[in-house]
């Protein structure tokens, strides 16, 4: 990230927080308490802070998932469905093989989930290559189909009648990740997320494959002339992207929920896109960016708990980030040359 | 069975309105993801304004107004500030989702279903003569004004798009924006107008969702904006095609409702259907392979 982008990011974050402040001041009956709860609350004790870190874990992973596909200039919009399918598969396998010791089960389940979610995403890449179906649209459609199918399974075959909501029974709690900061939700999946992010960073920045992805993303025609198989890169980047999304859901399930709950992942995929956009497709920057998103979510929750604001404030603030993050000429008065590096103008959205 | 058949048109109306809105942006070369959010915001504001003033017309205007406002915001961000329209659209959906629930809990102290009892009801209209035809009469007549308006809008859109210079220019902008620009057609103006029109129609779609039910629930659009977008693609960017696609999706929703009431089966499988149909359509349809990809 160059200096210009850093300032730009600071502005976007500042604008979002400023907007949040305005909303709180306008809607709260006790603005002082609410503002304090919102801005300081999540850091005030280990419980809130642990929850903040815990909710950043899936966002880091969906964020890097979006980074991979965006770097190759393919739009994986099926993150939401890939997260959901991955989570469900994880739960299902944890039941099927409940006699396995955790140390054997984890690598086994993780690789299956990674592959299945990855293949779900790669299907869009395949359709693009073979039938020239717009990846953006096909991944979205496939994702919705996957979500509804998994929902149908949760609601009928796998439902726990005693749960009082659409959720499956719990799997053996031997498989749950260790808690790091009890009583908060923070779990050992944090390290997994960091390892995954860092390895992806190495792949993207230090390997030939990563270079090929970046080249294809910047200029596919040129990439083709240098002998890179654009189709292969397209498929692989979709596969990796889907795989990471699947991991995001699964780690959340194994860390916190211990069962599949309908709609538990609401927004992980969409927010992952925003995380990647703030991070400007740099995997390591996805970490602070996801922390910021998680902070907004948790700040609103803490504010709702300690004061009278509604947790939905978080979504309106996050929306302002979506509004400003890709605006290329927002700062044209600062610098005439365009600042965005890995982002194509709006025409790509309809053409790719 | 009777309830199923009579349920098709009312289920279709909101989808059709939003899809017609999406049609304009689609033809101008933009993919408007924000239909869902525009509908949702309109659904809330229309019923809120109608409840305050006891006037349905003001409700309609408020719904359309807020939706157009959102469309203008999208236009300024994506056309003037050159933000990615897709990401802005996601923002619109997220914003509408949070904002409506926030306002609902602020004004009504409730996050669940809000029921507006004092709202004037939308009248059901029987078309003279036609509703007396045996069997067909009850299928063709006996809907609300809104439903007839939606079907009328299909023909209006077809007229605008194919018989007026505006429609011709709009389609030119979508086909090849550079050529259109060189021919002296303002791409910016046409895309902005298309966004505003999509705001008007999505606004009507939102009104068609909340006003007849006299209720508002957070997230009540429940994916209809996405389905509308899919209807635009399935309808091949032509109003009549969009109408057929919306009719299919309306029937699927009505069928899902009917099955849910009569058989204990998960309606989720049927809800996946519109997306599956569209995907298959996109796969089967003749696509020009992009140069170099596929080798």
Give the SSE map.
The complex is a heterodimer of chains A (352) and B (295).
Chain A: H1 3-27, H2 31-40, H3 46-71, H4 79-96, H5 102-131, H6 135-155, H7 189-206, H8 208-218, H9 220-225, H10 230-257, H11 268-278, H12 286-306, H13 313-325, H14 347-351
Helix pairs in contact in A: 1-2, 1-13, 2-12, 3-7, 3-10, 3-11, 3-12, 4-5, 4-6, 4-10, 4-11, 5-6, 5-10, 7-8, 7-10, 8-10, 11-12, 11-13, 12-13
Chain B: H1 2-27, H2 35-53, H3 56-80, H4 85-107, E1 114-115, E2 124-125, H5 136-140, E3 143-144, H6 145-163, H7 165-175, H8 177-182, H9 187-210, E4 215-216, H10 224-234, H11 239-262, H12 268-284
Antiparallel strand pairs in B: 1-4, 2-3
Helix pairs in contact in B: 1-6, 1-9, 1-10, 1-11, 2-3, 2-4, 2-9, 2-10, 3-4, 3-9, 6-7, 6-11, 7-9, 10-11, 10-12, 11-12
Structural Rg of chain B:
20 Å
Broad structural category of chain A = mainly alpha
Q: What is the strand content of chain B?
A: under 5%
Low-confidence stretches of chain A: 334-352
- What is the count of β-strands of chain B? 4
Proportion in β-strands of chain A: under 5%
Largest sheet, strands/sense/barrel of chain A: none
- Please provide the count of β strands of chain A: 0
- What distance separates the N and C termini of chain A? 25 Å
- Class from helix and strand fractions of chain B: mainly alpha
| Major β-sheet annotation of chain B | 2 strands, antiparallel
Rounded average pLDDT of chain B: 83
Query: What level of helicity do the residues of chain A show?
Result: 55-70%
What is the radius of gyration of chain A?
20 Å
Q: What order do the helices and strands of chain B follow?
A: HHHHEEHEHHHHEHHH
Task: Estimate the helix proportion of chain B, in percent.
Answer: over 70%
